[in-house]
Write a structure and sequence with these properties.
Layout: E1 5-10, H1 18-33, E2 40-44, E3 49-52, E4 68-70, E5 77-80, E6 84-90, H2 99-116, E7 122-124, E8 127-132, H3 152-155, H4 173-176, E9 180-190, E10 193-201, E11 221-222, H5 225-229, H6 235-252
Parallel strand pairs: 1-2, 3-4, 9-11
Antiparallel strand pairs: 2-6, 3-5, 6-10, 7-8, 8-9, 9-10
Helix pairs in contact: 2-6
Length: 265
Amino acid sequence: MADLGFVHLGFGPDCVEYTQAWEEQRRVHAARFADEIGDTCLLLEHQPVYTAGRRTADNERPLDGTPVVDVDRGGKITWHGPGQLVGYPIMKLPRPVDVVAHVRRLEEALIRTAADFGLETTRVEGRSGVWVLGDPIEERPKIGGLSLDFDPRLTDDEFDPRLNGPEYAPSNAGQRREDRKLAAIGIRVAKGVTMHGFAINVNPDNTWFDRIVPCGIRDAGVTSLSYELDKEITIAEVVPVVEKHLNDVLEQAELRPREIESAAG
C-alpha cells in the first residue's frame, strides 16, 4: 500500500484543543472517503482533556465534575494532554473492515517504537493498547497492608479507587509493580475509513489519570516512556520513530476484509 502521509497539527505551546482536532479529523475523513487525499495520520499533543468512548460508565468519570467530552470512538474514558503523543490514522480499508486487525497493527507499531527506546512492552489478552507487564502477583508489594488476594478493587463492588488516594492511584502502578498501560487505542470506522487512533504517554503528568478509572480498568494503571526508562524522553524524539514504525507495519500488512462466516444451508 502507499505510504501513510503525516500531518503535524501542533505540539508543545501549539498543542491542539480537542474539539478543534476532532473537527479536523472529520474533514480529513470526508476527503479520504472521497479519494481526494491518500491515507493520512494526524499527529499532535492535546490541551488537557478527558474524553469518553461509548462504553464509559458513570462511575468511571471524574468525581469533581471536571468536564468530559463524549466521543464516537470505541473504548471508555481516558485523558489526553501535554507530554502525550496522539495519532489519528485516517485510512481507507477493505470492507467489511477488520477492526481487530487494524488495532493490532497500531499496537505493533507502538511496541516497536518503545523497543527502539529500550523499553519492552506487550499486549494483554482482552485489553487493547500497549502494556508494561508488572511482577507476578505474589511478588508485588501489599496494598494498604492487605494481601492482594483481598484487593478491594477486585473483590468489593462498592470500592472506588478514585476516592482512596495514592495507594490505589493509576499513576502509581509502577511503584506497586502492577501491569501499566503505556499507550491506549480507541478507533471508529465509518464508510470503511478509520478515525481516532492511539495515544502514547511520553512524559506527561500521569496524575491526571487519577481522577478517573482509565479505560475502565481498576486493577492496573498507567505509565510513560520517561518513567519506565528513568530519563526524560521528549515528544520530538518519539514522533519520527512512531512515523517510521507505522509506515513499516502498514507496508508489511496484507490488508484484507474481515471474513464473514456464511450460515450453513
